[in-house]
């Protein structure tokens, strides 16, 4: 798996998390995940202002062959969503860690970040899934 | 694709390959305690001759009365060509078209149906139909709750002028989903929802249902109601008679922005009344809501060679992909009914539909004029209506219905059960199938009933329950 930035944190459910300098987090799905999903045709983005708990379903990614839930990596408030995805859901396929970001969170419990995986641990989890 | 059943030899050969003795062995995972021992309430089988004779006897009980009743199902003339074509084997025995390459005929027909429906109600998208108008409204309510993400109340405003059976069905289907149905009462003079009666500050409402024509046949104030709903963040669900849409303003043109979801009963378009069914429900919506729409949707695309082709699309909404998160459990449509309706609409064309609708409107006008000329019969609601009207009688409605039934006339639908506040009232309808002679016959008979009741000179009262 070549595309796995070291500076990000990951979840077992294939989300990546970027810690921003202002204390907010940006969330998306990994390159591995977008490859599994196939061409994305629609993203059901969450509403801003919604409070989510760690592990809550907060978005839906629809591809040509499946509809997959996105889980919030940590608890917090959704403060921004990537409107680009409304008309260009394939941004996730083309640039999963850049233009394909999905939403930004204001976390409420910083200790939850410690429960997330680093690149190496995520690689183990993803490879073990044996898709 | 033809259906070819298995022979006993086929079954035996397959069981041998699988390696079991009998079909029952394949179900041995199911605990014996859960298995029933035959179907005890099912009567013994009958031969084809016995069944044919039984059905003949039953059919005789149906009768062929002169029908002046609408109330959700309407007698219209269906050109012979409609069912002649619909009952062709290719259409009649076609299954749900999952396998696109083997179902292009069916899929193209459904696509044409969707196109015609969307055009008729002036909306962006139509699905390939639902079971009937009542469950269609329930699905529209569920859809509005999913689609209106800004609203948290799950409160739906439901006018009492919506068909009572539809309201009952909605309550049944959404009752356990935390959805609140708020009934809105109607104006006693007009028989409509008076926009003036709506509060200036209704709070959080998810959707407003607007029937047009409504159950009384009356045309609602669709523009004012639509704008009011949108101004308060609610979606608009229109409930329509598709035949009426050829004559009156379709929901896509209601108010500033048009209705958001449209549903209704498709029976008037080429479907016989058949003692209550099968009918079909129509469901249309704006483009922005298409991913929340339940049911089958057929799309048009191109194949490998660039030739146009049709296929089921947006299937990620459906049960076989989203499972418990699907927009609905509906994973089928009323294929045969829709086939008939599409052929009916193609044969009639926009001009034909308009003429039928206009004739219905005219005939009901004549019927109401003749009946209200009788002393003791009054029209209840003053507003313009499509092809039904509510009449108040100075005699018990059930007595009148029974006497007319003895003359083989279905007088209308009694409103005393669902609208007791209206007293002895009858909902009457005269479609294009009712001639002037039919209307005269009804009027004559009704006049006689009133006259006989009035002859107080005779000490012996005529028996009404003959």
Describe this structure in a few short sentences.
The complex is a heterodimer of chains A (131) and B (466). Chain A has 131 residues and is α+β, with helices and mostly antiparallel strands. Helices cover 19% and strands 32% of the residues of chain A.
Describe this structure as you would to a colleague:
The complex is a heterodimer of chains A (131) and B (466). Chain A is built from four helices and nine strands. By secondary structure, chain A is of the alpha+beta class. Helix content of chain A is 19%, strand content 32%. In chain A, strand 1 and strand 2 form a beta hairpin. The two termini of chain A are 13 Å apart. In chain A, 37% of the residues are buried. The radius of gyration of chain A is 14 Å and the shape is globular. Chain A has a single domain, classed as RNA polymerase II/Efflux pump adaptor protein, barrel-sandwich hybrid domain (OB fold (Dihydrolipoamide Acetyltransferase, E2P)), CATH 2.40.50.100. Chain B has 466 residues and is α/β, with parallel strands linked by helices. Chain B has two domains: 80-343, Type I PLP-dependent aspartate aminotransferase-like (Major domain) (Aspartate Aminotransferase, domain 2, 3-Layer(aba) Sandwich), CATH 3.40.640.10; 349-454, Alpha-Beta Complex (Aspartate Aminotransferase, domain 1), CATH 3.90.1150. Helix content of chain B is 35%, strand content 14%. Chain B is built from twelve helices and 15 strands. In chain B, helix 5 (104-121) runs parallel beside helix 10, helix 6 packs across helix 7 and helix 10 (335-372) packs across helix 12. The longest helix of chain B has 38 residues, at 335-372. Chain B is globular. The mean pLDDT of chain B is 93. Classes of the chains: A alpha+beta (131), B alpha/beta (466). The A-B interface holds A 41-42, 44, 47, 60, 62-63, 66-67, 69 and B 149-150, 291, 316, 321-322, 325.
Rg of chain B (CA only): 25 Å
Range of strand content of chain B: 5-15%
Largest sheet of chain A: 6 strands, antiparallel
Rough outline of chain B: globular
Low-confidence stretches of chain B: none
């Amino acid at each position: 798996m070549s595309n796995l930035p070291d500076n990000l944190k990951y979840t077992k459910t294939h989300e990546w998390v970027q810690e921003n300098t202002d204390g907010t987090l940006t969330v998306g799905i990994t390159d591995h995940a977008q490859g599994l999903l196939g061409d994305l045709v629609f993203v059901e983005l969450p509403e801003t202002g919604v409070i989510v708990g760690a592990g809550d379903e907060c978005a839906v990614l629809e591809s040509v062959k499946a509809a997959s839930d996105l889980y919030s990596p940590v608890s917090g408030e959704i403060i921004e969503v990537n409107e680009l995805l409304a008309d260009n859901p394939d941004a996730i396929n083309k640039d999963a860690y850049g233009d394909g970001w999905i939403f930004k969170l204001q976390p409420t419990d910083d200790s939850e970040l410690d429960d997330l995986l680093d690149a190496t641990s995520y690689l183990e989890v993803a490879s073990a899934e044996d898709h | 694709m033809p259906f070819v059943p298995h022979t006993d030899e086929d079954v035996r050969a397959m069981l041998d390959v699988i390696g079991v003795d009998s079909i029952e062995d394949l179900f041995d995972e199911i605990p014996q305690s859960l298995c029933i021992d035959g179907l005890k309430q099912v009567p013994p089988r009958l031969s084809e001759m016995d069944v044919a004779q039984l059905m003949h006897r039953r059919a005789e009980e149906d009768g062929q009365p002169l029908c002046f009743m609408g109330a959700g199902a309407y007698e219209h003339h269906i050109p012979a060509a409609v069912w002649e074509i619909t009952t062709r084997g290719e259409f009649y025995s076609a299954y749900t078209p999952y396998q696109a390459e083997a179902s292009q005929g069916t899929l193209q027909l459904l696509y044409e149906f969707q196109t015609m429906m969307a055009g008729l109600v002036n909306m962006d998208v139509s699905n390939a139909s639902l079971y009937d108008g009542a469950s269609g409204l329930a699905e529209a309510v569920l859809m509005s709750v999913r689609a209106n993400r800004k609203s948290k109340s799950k409160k739906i405003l439901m006018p009492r002028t919506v068909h009572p059976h539809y309201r009952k069905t909605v309550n049944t289907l959404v009752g356990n989903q935390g959805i609140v149905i708020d009934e809105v009462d109607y104006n006693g003079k007009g028989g409509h929802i008076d926009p003036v009666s709506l509060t200036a500050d209704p709070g959080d409402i998810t959707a407003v249902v607007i029937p047009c024509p409504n159950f009384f046949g009356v045309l609602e104030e669709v523009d004012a109601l639509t704008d009011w709903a949108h101004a308060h963040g609610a979606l608009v669900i229109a409930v329509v008679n598709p035949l009426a849409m050829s004559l009156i303003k379709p929901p896509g043109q209601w108010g500033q922005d048009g209705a958001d979801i449209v549903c209704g009963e498709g029976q008037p378009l080429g479907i016989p009344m058949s003692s209550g069914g099968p009918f079909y429900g129509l469901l249309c919506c704006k483009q922005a809501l298409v991913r929340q729409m339940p049911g089958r949707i057929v799309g048009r695309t191109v194949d490998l060679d660039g030739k146009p082709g049709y296929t089921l699309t947006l299937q990620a909404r459906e049960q076989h992909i989203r499972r418990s998160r699907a927009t609905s459990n509906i994973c089928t449509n009323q294929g045969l009914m829709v086939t008939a309706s599409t052929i009916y609409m193609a044969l009639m064309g926009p001009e034909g539909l308009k003429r039928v609708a206009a004739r219905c409107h005219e005939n009901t006008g004549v019927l109401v004029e003749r009946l209200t000329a009788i002393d003791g019969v009054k029209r209840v609601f003053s507003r313009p209506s499509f092809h039904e009207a509510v009449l108040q009688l100075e005699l018990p409605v059930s007595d009148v219905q029974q006497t007319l039934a003895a003359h083989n006339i279905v007088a209308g639908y009694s409103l005393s059960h669902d609208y007791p506040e209206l007293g002895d009232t009858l909902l009457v309808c005269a479609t294009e199938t009712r001639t002037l002679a039919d209307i005269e016959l009804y009027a004559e008979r009704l006049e006689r009933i009133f006259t006989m009741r009035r002859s107080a000179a005779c000490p012996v009262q005529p028996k009404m329950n003959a």
